[in-house]
Design a protein that fits this description.
The protein is mainly β and 76 residues long. It contains no helices and seven strands.
């Protein structure tokens, strides 16, 4: 692949409150928002890094699971 990303890199995001926002950011010369979703408490989204998505921004209280481990947005 050689582009610094792997098709198998998934992120699981579980909303811990209503109104959690997930924003996908583009890859390339200029980083831009390309997609957003709102989750309510208990909803889960599975996202994947791709040739178009280089970053995922999460706003609100959420639990995030990656191959690197688990974290919560409300923990230091």
């Amino acid at each position: 692949m050689g582009q610094g990303w792997e098709q198998s890199d998934y992120v699981v995001i579980k909303a811990l409150e209503n109104g959690v926002t997930i924003i996908g950011l583009t890859r390339g010369k200029d980083t831009k928002f390309h997609h957003s979703e709102k989750l309510d408490k208990g909803e889960v989204m599975i996202a994947q890094f791709t040739e178009h998505t280089s970053a995922i921004k999460v706003r609100g209280r959420a639990e995030i699971l990656t191959r690197h481990g688990r974290l919560r947005t409300d923990e230091p």
